Amino acid sequence: MFKQHHATADAVGVNFYRGRGTGAAPTATVSGDDIIDFGFLGYDGTAISASAGISVITTGTISTGIIPAKFQFSTRNQAGVFTARVEISAEGVLQCNTIANLSGSDITFSPSGVVRLPVGSTVGGVLIGSIIIKGTVATSASLPGGAATGDAYVALSPTPTKLWTWNGSAWVDLGTFQGPAGSNGTNGQGVPTGGTVGQVLSKIDSSNYNTQWTTLSTVATSGAYADLSGTPSIPAAYASTSIDALSDVDTTTSAPTNGQALVWNSATSLWEPGTVSSGAGGVSKIIAGTNISISPTNGLGEVTINSTASGGGGSLDFGTFASPSGFTLDLGSF
């Protein structure tokens, strides 16, 4: 008998302490250690034998200030087997082999997955009598016809899953039928944490799953070439000699005359009207021979060839030939 008198809500305290090591040098308990065992024994006519027991057993990870434990209830059955029948986990989850109605009507969770409830029970406020969960179907549209009253199926889609039972004339939706949501899983292989909107995963090297978040370069669709980033450099010899805009041409001088062309002026870095020398710029060169003059001399436009030869002091010998009757040879004048 424990007695206590005081003006607070505290009850008589009974503590059971368990550690490892020694009293002078204790060490931490580990998962699976019994904190306490209560044994309930009887005499069988020959010896004392345990009939039932209650244990508190540590479980999970033990750390500073945290020693999770479970309650375990054990009994010896008619066959003489003494084992745990019911457990209450550290999270408060009740686990047992069989739940039976004390009045004699069984509520059984069998290994085959069949659940039987006493006649007169309700689920979701629906009087359904005895429920037999017979399995699962893909959707509620897949529920079979001609079922017996109390037959039930779990429809897997849409989620969350729902329990349906046949009430004798129609299938009744009893609502969701699922356990609590589990914790989020870890990232898959090759998916690093972090990243921002618009980034993509790219390989770091040839190792499997070795990736990183990468920001793609901005691609311009308009604007000046000089405003773009990551562009290659154009050599000055080509960048300044191309005629790709009106700004490359000198428009301040007089208009070109006949026979002129655009000529590069390295002093002003502009194209200007000018004269191309004979043979320059890929134009064929015409060379005047003896007593021949060419105009103009730039090799462009029309080419006129003037003869400056004279006939003074020369002679022309046609040889000797017979003149046919009525034939006249006119040599002109020279």
Mind sketching the topology for me?
Layout: E1 20-21, E2 26-27, E3 34-43, E4 48-58, E5 69-76, E6 82-88, E7 94-96, E8 99-100, E9 106-109, E10 115-116, E11 122-123, E12 126-127, E13 132-139, E14 151-157, E15 162-166, E16 171-176, E17 200-203, E18 211-214, H1 236-239, E19 261-265, E20 270-274, E21 292-295, E22 304-307
Parallel strand pairs: 13-14
Antiparallel strand pairs: 1-2, 3-4, 4-5, 5-6, 6-7, 8-9, 9-10, 11-12, 14-15, 15-16, 17-18, 19-20, 21-22
What descriptive keywords fit this protein?
four-stranded mixed beta sheet, five-stranded antiparallel beta sheet, mainly beta, about 0% helix, about 325 residues, 1 helix
Structure report:
With 334 residues, the chain is an all-beta fold. The chain is built from 1 helix and 22 strands. The radius of gyration is 55 Å and the shape is elongated.
Which runs of at least 5 residues are low in confidence (pLDDT < 50)? 278-283
Give, in spatial order, the strands making up the sheet with the most strands.
3-4-5-6-7
Q: What characterizes the major β-sheet?
A: 5 strands, antiparallel
User: What's the N-to-C terminus distance?
Assistant: 164 Å
- Kindly name the structural category: mainly beta
Determine Rg (CA atoms, Å). Answer: 55 Å
Give the overall form: elongated
SSE run = EEEEEEEEEEEEEEEEEEHEEEE
How much of the sequence is in beta strands?
25-35%
The overall strand count is 22
Give average pLDDT, whole number. 76
Oligomer: single chain
Q: Helix count?
A: 1
Helix percentage range: under 10%
